[in-house]
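Worked example 3 (structure in, sequence out).
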C-alpha cells in the first residue's frame, strides 16, 4: 500500500469506526481510572477501546511494520499519539519514547502484540511501569455481536448496535526490578480472570 493509499485508508477507517461506534452501547462494569496510567489489554480488543478512550491524552505503541500503520493512522484521528516499535527493556527507542511521553500522557499497550502469542503477557509492559512509575490497569472486553477475523489474535470488530462490556482491573504497581518477574504471572492471571467475569449476559 503506497502513501496515498494509506492516507485514504486512514480517513475511511476512522470514519467507519466512528459510524460503528456511535451505535455501540458500552457497559462499564467498573469506573474509568483517573490520572495517568498504563492501559493494558489484548491486541484483539483495540477497536472498541480506541473508540471508547478517544481524545483522552493517550499515547499508544504501534508496530513499525505496515500493519502498525493501519492502526496508528486511524488512531491519530481519534486523538492518540503513537510511538512506533515494540516495547521491551529500556534499551529500545520505542520504550525510551514512551517513558518520556508518560510524564504527560497515559499509555495504551497490548502486551501480546505485535505478533503474539495471543493473550500471553510479555514483560515490556512491566518494564514500562517500573521506569515510568505509572500503574498498570488491565482491561477486559466482551462483545455480544462481532466479526472475529482469522488472524493470529482473532481480531474483533463489533457490529452495529452491539453491547460491549468493559472491566478495569485494580492498579498494579511495579516498584522494584524484582517485581517485574514476580508480577508477570500475576498480571496474566488477572487479565484471564477479568475476561471470564466480564462476559455480556
Amino acid at each position: 500500500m503506497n502513501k496515498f493509499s494509506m492516507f485514504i485508508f486512514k480517513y475511511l477507517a476512522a470514519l467507519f469506526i466512528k459510524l460503528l461506534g456511535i451505535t455501540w452501547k458500552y457497559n462499564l462494569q467498573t469506573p474509568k481510572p483517573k490520572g495517568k496510567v498504563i492501559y493494558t489489554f489484548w491486541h484483539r480488543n483495540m477497536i472498541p477501546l480506541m473508540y471508547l478512550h478517544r481524545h483522552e491524552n493517550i499515547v499508544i505503541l504501534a508496530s513499525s511494520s505496515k500493519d502498525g500503520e493501519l492502526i496508528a493512522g486511524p488512531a491519530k484521528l481519534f486523538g492518540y499519539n503513537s510511538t512506533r516499535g515494540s516495547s521491551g527493556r529500556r534499551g529500545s527507542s520505542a520504550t525510551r519514547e514512551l517513558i518520556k511521553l508518560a510524564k504527560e500522557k497515559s499509555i495504551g499497550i497490548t502486551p501480546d502484540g505485535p505478533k503474539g502469542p495471543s493473550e500471553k503477557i510479555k514483560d515490556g509492559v512491566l518494564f514500562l511501569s517500573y521506569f515510568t512509575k505509572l500503574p498498570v490497569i488491565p482491561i477486559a472486553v466482551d462483545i455480544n455481536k462481532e466479526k472475529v477475523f482469522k488472524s493470529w489474535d482473532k481480531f474483533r470488530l463489533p457490529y452495529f448496535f452491539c453491547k460491549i462490556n468493559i472491566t478495569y482491573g485494580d492498579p498494579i504497581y511495579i516498584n522494584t526490578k524484582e517485581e517485574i518477574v514476580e508480577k508477570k504471572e500475576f498480571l496474566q492471571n488477572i487479565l484471564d480472570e477479568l475476561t471470564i467475569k466480564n462476559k455480556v449476559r
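Notes: DSSP finds six helices and nine strands in the chain. The longest strand covers residues 136-143.
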